[in-house]
Amino acid sequence: MSTPKTIKIGLCGFGTVGQGVWQHLERARTDLEARLGVKLELARAAVRDLKRARDVAIPADKITGDALSIANDPSLAIVCELIGGTTLAREVTLAALKRGAIVVSANKALLCDHGAELFETARKHGGQLLFEASVAGGIPIIKALREGLVANRFTQIYGILNGTCNYILTRMVQEGAPYATILADAKRLGYAEADESLDVDGWDTAHKASVLAFLAHGVWIKTDKMIVEGIAKITQADLKHAAALGYGIKLLAVITRDFAANQLFVRVHPTLIPEERVLASVNGVFNGVSVTGDVVGTTTYIGRGAGRDATASAVISDIVDAAAILATGKAVPSIPGSSSYASSQPPSLAPLEKITGRYYVRTLVKDEPGVLAQIATVMANHKVSIASVTQPEVAEEGTASLILTTHLSNEHAIRETLADLARLPSVVEAPLLLRIGDFAE
Q1: What is the CATH class of 6-138+309-328?
Q2: pTM of the predicted protein model
Q3: β-sheet bridge partners, residue 349
Q4: What fold is seen in the domain 353-436?
Q5: Residue ranges of domains in the chain
Q6: Could you list the active site residues?
Q7: What is the pLDDT of residues 320-374, one digit of tens each?
Q8: For a tag on the chain, would you pick the N or C end, based on fewer CB atoms within 10 A?
Q9: Alpha helix positions (H), 80-125
Q10: CATH assignment, 141-304
């Protein structure tokens, strides 16, 4: 009997996720080798600080401070890029792809900023890039889009892609505490970074939305071409009023495509989502993604979206796929946008006038006669029809808080409306805009 082939694996980055990958892959290695018919060897790991104590101990001769030495090592057929950021991570990924290695990455920011360059490099040099862990942690959403739902065209994808924001909004609802208090707890518990802006301002979700848009539609949408808004301005009044209307509030990524017009739009923002929708009940640090295809209809995926074990699970899934590719010579399915994929004309970005929906507007105004008439006039000037008006609470003396919902309008009209409202002398602070997610399923 011949000796099974040995596939050597190198890890660039040995923080929380890297240690989880090493630990769980070692634990499951015997079973995985039996399934794959090959030997898996965790050969080397690159770290930032050689002296730092770690939870997972590995032999000293397997640790290096030079990530590029792993990327350039011809004996390592699989390189896991778990560094984060877009500088050294890009150098490592390009170096490994240029020598024809398979790179496994959990880096959504890298893919969003440099995905086109990375996939072209892989194509040119015979490498491959696998990235299941870059979106929604332990939820196999990338495999679903690339493999399980390959027969579909996707008219709509929307989801909760950031566990930190979902944790904050969930606790605000359950405990009635303000945003700032819950955010401080999230930092203390390690759910939010010291600089929370990447999460709470929507940028982490936007990076992930870019990856999903590429998988579903074959084009890279940069974050500066999206609507990106965060959760910092959400108040208890918003949550309570949304609940009274039959909605929860979630930070959603929304990817929509009009195939008739061949137009695509990607946006990230807090959204009022009907309570009967499955994702309205996805709470805490969990993520959820709803995918609507023209063949299968709507499918929903829920699971842990972040953390050591969930992300490590997705990375190991890609490592196993990479080992299977190396053992059998069979490549992963082509994806839209890659050079080997014979796609139709790529979609263009839809103009704001084509992005329609209903809206929730909260504003603080002077408590004086005629203010509501002024607001109604501004909205009418932009053909934005008011559906309801509520004054939910007593504001500061001399002011009133107003919450309005609209009938169907569009992003261009509502932006112009809010700009004009903010200029009214009777409006005390800039209005808050939330979208109402009446998603068709």
Answers
A1: alpha beta
A2: 0.88
A3: 264
A4: Alpha-Beta Plaits (3.30.70)
A5: 6-138+309-328, 141-304, 353-436
A6: 208
A7: 989 999 988 766 555 554 433 434 678 999 999 999 999 999 999 998 999 999 9
A8: N
A9: 88-98, 108-125
A10: 3.30.360.10
